[in-house]
Design a protein that fits this description.
With about 100 residues, this protein is an alpha+beta fold. The chain has one domain: Beta-grasp domain (Ubiquitin-like (UB roll)).
Length: about 100
């Protein structure tokens, strides 16, 4: 599924097609930051909204079924939420590793 999603992003960008034409609905944009970006091997992808209902579902879909690490921060449309927060088409979901500093 990840390859398919990435291929659709490339298709949309290369041919300058509207994602709605390719996905059938406005997709969810999933973004990864810092070490999660390195772990996932990409900084973002598009996900079909009809396959997910919550932030947890988004993570399970993009991670191949791996559990969401308990200390991962999640945001929907630039607002921090917990992983049970609902998502809908057109949302932007972001995953951040825990931040530490002094």
């Amino acid at each position: 599924m990840r390859v398919e999603g990435f291929a659709r992003i490339l298709y949309c960008r290369f041919w300058r097609r509207n994602p709605v034409e390719v996905f059938g609905a406005m997709p969810i944009t999933v973004k990864y930051f810092a070490s999660l970006r390195e772990h996932m091997g990409r900084d973002q992808e598009l996900l079909q909204a009809s396959k997910v209902r919550t932030v947890r579902d988004v993570w399970l879909q993009v991670s191949g079924g791996q559990a969401l690490p308990s200390n991962t921060l999640c945001a929907v449309n630039m607002e921090y939420v917990d992983n049970s927060h609902p998502v809908q088409e057109g949302d932007e979901v972001a995953f951040f590793p825990p931040v530490t500093g002094g």
